[in-house]
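Structure first, sequence second, as always.
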């Protein structure tokens, strides 16, 4: 019996105390706002309204809306902080998951290292024969080669960044003759997805109709299985 009374008593406290504290805080804030803003706002309203009683009522209404605005701003700020904390917590979890952590870190570091605003330094997705002839690697054209490197080569060469999978923040810069570069129609984003997934994620076939895909590959010398 005494235990039930005790439990009910503390349950009542848990309900009443937060409500009472909320009203007390609001009362305190309203009183402070009245002390700070009542006279200044009344002086402003009295310029247009001679009736002091109406001015006092209007002033309190204005203070009420100011309070609502302040609470809304505080809530907005708290929400931003909460979202950032949740994002940080989720990010920490991703960093601890094998494979996913590598992909996430790669994407994040790649965005920071190679993206300026919304413009990527990568111009096109290409195929190059690397590390030896007959073996093709996905690469990203960064620019045309200039300066000494171009001056000492017989052909026009292209700067191609060949990233490693699944972490594309590392890789090799290769200078490939323009005639040996095979330009792909996939976007830079699709090429990056392909690299990070180790080829598990591939963009939709550029050739459209999959019924004619094998014929097209025969023409290109890329006969599928």
């Amino acid at each position: 019996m005494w235990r039930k009374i005790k439990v009910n008593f503390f349950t009542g406290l848990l309900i009443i105390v937060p409500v009472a504290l909320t009203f007390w805080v609001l009362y305190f804030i309203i009183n402070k706002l009245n002390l700070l803003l009542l006279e200044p706002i009344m002086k402003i309203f009295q310029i247009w309204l001679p009736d002091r009683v109406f001015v006092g009522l209007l002033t309190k209404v204005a203070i009420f809306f100011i309070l609502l605005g302040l609470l809304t701003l505080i809530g907005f700020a708290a929400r931003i902080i909460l979202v950032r904390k949740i994002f940080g917590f989720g990010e920490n979890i991703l960093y601890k998951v094998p494979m996913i952590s590598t992909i996430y870190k790669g994407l994040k570091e790649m965005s920071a290292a190679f993206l300026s605003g919304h413009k990527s330094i990568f111009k096109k997705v290409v195929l190059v024969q690397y590390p030896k002839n007959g073996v093709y690697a996905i690469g990203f054209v960064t620019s045309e080669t200039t300066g000494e490197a171009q001056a000492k080569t017989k052909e026009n060469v292209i700067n191609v960044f060949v990233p490693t999978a699944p972490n594309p923040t590392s890789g090799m810069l290769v200078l490939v003759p323009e005639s040996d570069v095979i330009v792909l129609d996939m976007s830079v984003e699709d090429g990056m997805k392909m690299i990070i997934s180790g080829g598990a994620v591939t963009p939709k076939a550029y050739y459209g109709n999959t019924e004619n895909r094998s014929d097209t590959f025969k023409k290109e010398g890329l006969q599928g299985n």
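Margin note: Helices lie at 2-46, 52-96, 100-114, 148-151, 188-196, 213-220.
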